[in-house]
Automatic annotation (TrEMBL):
Record organism: Maribacter spongiicola
GO terms classed as biological process: proteolysis
Entry-linked Pfam families: Peptidase_S9 (PF00326), Peptidase_S9_N (PF02897)
Keywords: Aminopeptidase, Hydrolase, Protease, Serine protease
InterPro entries hit by this protein: 6-blade_b-propeller_TolB-like (IPR011042), AB_hydrolase_fold (IPR029058), Pept_S9A_N (IPR023302), Peptidase_S9_cat (IPR001375), Peptidase_S9A (IPR002470)
Residue ranges annotated for the Peptidase S9A N-terminal domain, each copy included: 101-361
Domain Peptidase S9 prolyl oligopeptidase catalytic residue range list: 422-635
GO MF: aminopeptidase activity; serine-type endopeptidase activity
The protein, known as: Dipeptidyl aminopeptidase/acylaminoacyl peptidase
Coiled-coil portions: none
Length: 646
């Protein structure tokens, strides 16, 4: 769990025509205020989402995933530019492309059962038919990479034991899986060396600590890499196979990149920055080392030429960042995504020899004017105890001191997640309709050092909630915000924080929007998916063990048992296939709050899991949220909804 959004053109239009003279500073503010066109949720959700980008063997085209049909399907796009060609036409479960086969036009993709997270790996055969390569009922599979000889691939599966992911190798001739590593001790499986001699394993210890091991598949000997308790993560083996690259925060607040010499056992620091290094890998032929850095809630990417040990120049964009890169097998081409908080990411290709680049997609709905979208601003404020809390602020363009707007405190998933400077159609929809959004990274969020990360351990619903309340106070102090109209919204752990806010600080927020949030920690922690077994104990160390004396505190912080304290309007949204936060969590909190005589709306999707993926469901969900906010937050008075009205 550590690792889970503008207003009507009212009196503002006329403010410059009033005869009474305004103070100079107010005149200037009004002059720069923009009234954007207002868009429907359907228009906003028609911003296309594209991911992936596997090069075909001759670099002529790429394989991607797109939700342009309403749900995710596979498409190909020419590398020289052109229309996307649909490869799959699923109208129920979403399909996510994995990769072209290394030597032919077969394709791998993954698909689950409408959000149940039981992913299987499929192949699209040369004749267009599809084959489930991991058909074991109830077992989930995850692609791990291609073998060096391009004749097989590796994947993990819990088909042997639902609690543990084993490593398998599957050949391309008869698709027969071979067990490579039997995982009987609850390790997380990492990288496999190209010569298939070494495998990295990790053991989760607690909130932000994990041991890293190098396992010799032939001798079965295991070597512990880290010397002290710290967060360690395998990244890649060097091109020669002599060294293991890994990230660690040993002796430091932030993770940095190290390398471990397999023969000597010596370690050496490779890259250190002022922020966490999220990951690092070598391209296929070892020419480049790609490193991702979490710089103040956005990706910074460095591509180092291994021979010169210098970073290459990447394409530059105004007000956008390169968020993701990958390379063709011959390393002549790089595909990348570029976007920002105010613009969805587009796919580009870049020739590393000629420096020519080509934009392959234009995902912003042409009905939407780009300058109507809101760019996020990183802000910081002091919490109740002096701890500095980072947050991401989306201010509606029509908002100013003379046209105050309502606002929402947005809480990310997790615990331990992070609100990032990424594009969100939902956030843009809310700001477009006149709601400011402050995405709070309360204590316990990742990306700001391990001390900050661990501050909420065994303290959820207390200091992390107070950080959110202080976020509300920060909003209330802004001249463009109506201080009496501030709500709270969040999904998963953020949904829990919404319910905790309405329960334990009932007078602080005017409304709550709970997106599939935990309401009963005792049940949630007892019913985690079996494949979370490898980090179950560390999860209990952070949140509490429901089978121990921690159960008393867990009940105290579970909103379900305190619904009598809720006094403000609430809307709850839930997917019935959710394996993380069960539907019963939302069923019961809705029933409990209704007994308290509080206006409650409940929106349930039978074909969604932990989050809403299908466009028609997103449109329904987010339009219902806006209707709810318009009724209970934006307006001065509203008639409560009676049971059964919605």
């Amino acid at each position: 769990m550590k690792k889970l959004f503008a207003c009507f053109a009212i009196a503002l239009i006329w403010s410059c025509t009033e005869k009474k003279e305004k103070p100079k500073e107010v005149q200037e503010e009004v002059a720069i205020t923009k009234i954007p066109d207002q868009y429907t949720i359907k228009q906003m959700m028609d911003n296309e989402a594209i991911s992936g980008g596997s090069f075909y063997r001759d670099n002529s085209k790429l394989l991607v995933s797109s939700n342009r049909s309403g749900i995710y399907n596979m498409y190909t796009v020419p590398a020289k530019g052109g229309e996307l060609t649909p490869i799959t036409q699923s109208d129920s479960a979403s399909i996510f492309a994995i990769s072209y086969f290394p030597r032919d036009e077969r394709m791998l993709f993954s698909m689950d059962g409408n959000g149940d997270e039981i992913y299987h790996i499929y192949v699209r055969n040369l004749n267009g038919s599809h084959t489930d390569l991991t058909p074991d009922k109830g077992a989930r599979a995850s692609f791990q990479g291609w073998a060096e000889d391009d004749q097989s691939f590796f994947f993990t599966s819990n088909k042997r034991d639902a609690k543990y992911m084993d490593l398998y190798q599957m050949d391309f001739l008869n698709y027969s899986p071979k067990l490579i590593f039997k995982n009987e001790d609850g390790y997380d499986i990492g990288n496999l060396s190209k010569d298939q001699k070494y495998l990295t394993l990790a053991k989760s210890l607690n909130t932000n600590d994990s041991d890293l091991y190098l396992f010799d598949l032939s001798t079965k000997k295991k070597i512990k890499i880290n010397k002290t308790q710290s967060a360690n993560s395998s990244q890649d083996f060097s091109p020669s196979g002599d060294e293991l690259y890994y990230t660690t925060d040993e002796g430091n607040e932030f993770s940095y990149l190290m390398k471990y010499n397999i023969a000597t056992g010596n370690t050496e620091k490779v890259i250190e920055r002022d922020w966490d290094i999220l990951g690092s890998y070598f391209t296929d032929n070892g020419t480049y080392l790609v490193t991702y850095i979490n710089e103040d809630a956005k990706n910074t990417i460095e591509v180092m030429n291994v021979a010169t040990m210098e970073n290459i120049d990447l394409p530059a964009f105004d007000a956008m960042e390169i968020t993701n890169v990958d390379f063709s097998k011959d390393e002549k081409w790089m595909r990348f995504y570029a976007g920002g908080s105010h613009t969805p990411s587009n796919l580009f290709v870049y020739n590393l020899e000629t420096k020519a680049q080509k934009q392959l997609t234009d995902v912003l709905n042409p009905e939407i004017k780009a300058d109507d979208l809101v760019a996020a601003e990183v802000v910081r404020y002091k919490s109740f105890d002096g701890v500095e809390i980072p947050a991401i602020y989306y201010k509606p363009q029509q908002a100013n001191a003379n046209a105050k707007v309502p606002a929402l405190v947005w809480v990310h998933g997790g615990p331990g997640g992070q609100s990032r400077q990424n594009f969100s159609s939902f956030i843009q929809y809310l700001t477009n309709h006149g709601y400011a959004v402050l995405a709070v990274n309360n204590r316990g969020s990742s990306g700001y050092g391990k001390t900050f990360y661990q501050m909420d351990d065994l303290n959820h619903g207390d200091k992390d909630l107070k950080d959110c309340v202080e976020g509300k106070n920060w909003l209330a102090a802004q001249p463009e915000i109506d201080a009496d109209k501030i709500g709270i919204i969040g999904g998963s752990y953020g949904g829990y924080m919404t319910m905790a806010a309405l329960t334990y600080t009932p007078e602080e927020f005017a409304v709550g929007v709970n997106l599939f949030g935990v309401t009963n920690w005792l049940r949630t922690l007892k019913s985690i998916p079996p494949w979370w077994e490898s980090f179950r104990e560390s999860l209990y160390l952070e949140l509490g063990d429901p089978y121990s004396s921690d159960s008393v505190r867990l009940k105290e912080i579970s909103p379900l048992f305190h619904t009598d304290k809720v006094t403000k309007p609430l809307i709850v949204l839930q997917g019935s296939q959710d394996p993380r936060v069960l539907q019963v969590e939302s069923d019961e909190i809705v029933a409990g709050v209704k007994k308290n005589g509080v206006p409650v709306e409940y929106v349930l999707f039978e074909d969604e899991g932990h989050g809403f993926v299908k466009k028609e469901n997103q449109i329904e969900a987010y339009s219902r949220v806006l209707d709810f906010l318009d009724l209970y937050l934006k307006k001065d008075k509203a008639t409560p909804i009676k049971d059964g009205d919605k």
